[in-house]
């Protein structure tokens, strides 16, 4: 069909105010707008976030992907520079959520101006589909977390009657232990909150029109997709693939060149990459244990470590990480490894032939990137959904767990032992992990290259708003 005859499908995306959420939404936007198998539909996307988040992304706009600023109302201790989770003191997270909730009318006004056909929204903002519905716009929830984690929290937060999560591999202990974990990491209620923390995910899932989209592969998570669908009245869970992001766009900075040159000089499969997410700051104790563990392992490593900018940025003396800005232990000068502060090209490092293991927090994007590279994981979950990601990759046979009495508490000796087992082991468990990681690499690569999943999402969105020749066609 000629370009002039193609119908426009206008999509507004509204991820949570964290780059770990924005990046998958942005990658999905790229694929929605660049795919060529959408029949008679051309997709355009408006991605909504705060200026604090969008400032770093301006060069990623295209003629079909435009950024729209959402200005949050002012609240004490939350200047516009902190309208993002990046460098946000933990004590201010409830304030950021409250400010975002208070911005609901402003978001609704943006929808009125943009007049989209469909809204894709995140779980923190269960009011977003209501603002859309008030303007006649259908809305679907897009989850950047695994189906397993989403299903677990839906079970724990819903009417489970105290029963344990039915998928044994995902359980975090007894029902009482699971409840305590959920209270600790998910339900830190803010007395001034406009939306209860317990309700955010459940309402977001319930208010999704027709289906819930998930960043995942059905071959990895089919049982959890099926379980998640059940309490939603059979609402279909739609996988859109791993949405792997090319991190070469960061450019060959001097630091990146230093890392890649160093890797070029190492033996195949001899290096462990240690990295724990873009927005998590280890405590001084955790940094000390990690430094000692990596040194004690005797293996070569690249450790990506992040520190709060200042003690004030870390939240002051009452912040949960201990107040003062962290630093590497005095006298720590590794002879067998590199320490990179801030950012490193994670996918490029994982894909390098010298990389033999990934010591990771098991955030969902990191899990997908490790599987995409065929690199086995040393799982060390630290908070939120990460223990569930660690359980999933262990169940898939691609990870060995570092023992922890409590999440976030680990010993250097255990880190060293498990790293050695995965990097150096030639028999038994280590060999099995490497073989399984290689098998899963093919699964993830096949799904990432499968444009049919994104095409299916386009057709589903088209049906929601009655657009496209295929809008009424069955699956």
From TrEMBL:
It is an enzyme of class 2 (transferase). It holds the Pfam family UDPGT. One of its GO terms (molecular function) is UDP-glycosyltransferase activity. Its EC number is 2.4.1.-. One of its GO terms (biological process) is carbohydrate derivative biosynthetic process. Keywords: Glycosyltransferase, Transferase. The keyword Glycosyltransferase applies. PROSITE patterns: UDPGT. Residues 7-243 form the Glycosyltransferase N-terminal domain. InterPro entries: Glyco_transf_N, UDP_glucos_trans, UDP_glycos_trans_CS. Belongs to the UDP-glycosyltransferase family. This is Glycosyltransferase. It comes from Urochloa decumbens. The lineage of its organism: Eukaryota, Viridiplantae, Streptophyta, Embryophyta, Tracheophyta.
């Amino acid at each position: 069909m000629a370009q002039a005859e193609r119908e426009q499908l206008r999509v507004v995306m509204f991820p949570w105010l964290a780059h770990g959420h924005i990046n998958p939404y942005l990658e999905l936007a790229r694929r929605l707008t660049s795919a060529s198998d959408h029949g008679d539909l051309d997709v355009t996307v408006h991605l909504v976030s705060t200026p604090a988040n969008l400032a770093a992304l301006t060069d990623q706009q295209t003629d079909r992907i435009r950024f729209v600023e959402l200005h949050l109302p002012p609240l004490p201790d939350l200047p516009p520079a902190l309208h993002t989770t990046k460098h946000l003191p933990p004590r201010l997270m409830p304030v950021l959520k409250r400010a975002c909730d208070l911005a609901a009318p402003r978001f609704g006004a943006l929808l009125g101006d943009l007049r989209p056909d469909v809204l894709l929204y995140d779980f923190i903002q269960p009011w977003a589909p209501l603002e859309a519905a008030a303007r006649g716009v259908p809305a679907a929830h897009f989850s950047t977390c695994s189906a397993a984690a989403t299903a677990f929290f839906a079970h724990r937060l819903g009417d489970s009657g105290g029963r344990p999560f039915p998928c044994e591999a995902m359980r975090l202990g007894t029902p009482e232990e699971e409840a305590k974990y959920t209270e600790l990491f998910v339900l830190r209620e803010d007395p001034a909150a406009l939306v209860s923390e317990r309700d955010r995910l459940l309402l977001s899932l319930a208010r999704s029109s027709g289906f819930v989209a998930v960043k995942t592969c059905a071959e990895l998570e089919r049982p959890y997709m099926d379980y998640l669908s059940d309490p939603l009245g059979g609402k279909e869970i739609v996988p859109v693939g791993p949405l792997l992001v090319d991190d070469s766009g960061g450019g060959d900075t001097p630091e990146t060149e230093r890392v890649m040159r160093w890797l070029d000089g190492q033996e195949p499969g001899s290096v462990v990459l240690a990295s724990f997410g873009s927005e998590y700051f280890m405590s001084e104790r955790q940094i000390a244990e990690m430094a000692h563990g990596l040194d004690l392992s005797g293996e070569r490593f690249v450790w990506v470590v992040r520190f709060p900018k200042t003690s004030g940025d870390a939240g002051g003396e009452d912040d949960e990480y201990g107040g003062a800005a962290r630093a590497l232990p005095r006298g720590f000068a590794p002879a067998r490894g590199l320490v990179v502060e801030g950012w490193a090209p994670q996918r490029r490092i994982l894909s390098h032939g010298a990389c033999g293991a990934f010591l990771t927090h098991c955030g969902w994007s990191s899990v997908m990137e490790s599987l995409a590279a065929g690199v086995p994981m040393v799982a060390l979950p630290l908070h939120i959904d990460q223990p569930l990601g660690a359980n999933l990759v262990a169940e898939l046979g691609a990870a060995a767990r570092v023992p922890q009495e409590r999440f976030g508490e680990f010993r250097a000796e255990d880190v060293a032992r498990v790293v050695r087992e995965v990097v150096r082991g030639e028999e038994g468990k280590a060999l099995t992990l490497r073989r399984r990681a290689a098998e899963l690499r093919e699964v993830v690569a096949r799904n990432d290259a499968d444009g049919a999943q994104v095409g299916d999402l386009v057709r589903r969105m088209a049906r929601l708003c009655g657009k496209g020749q295929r809008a009424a066609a069955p699956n």
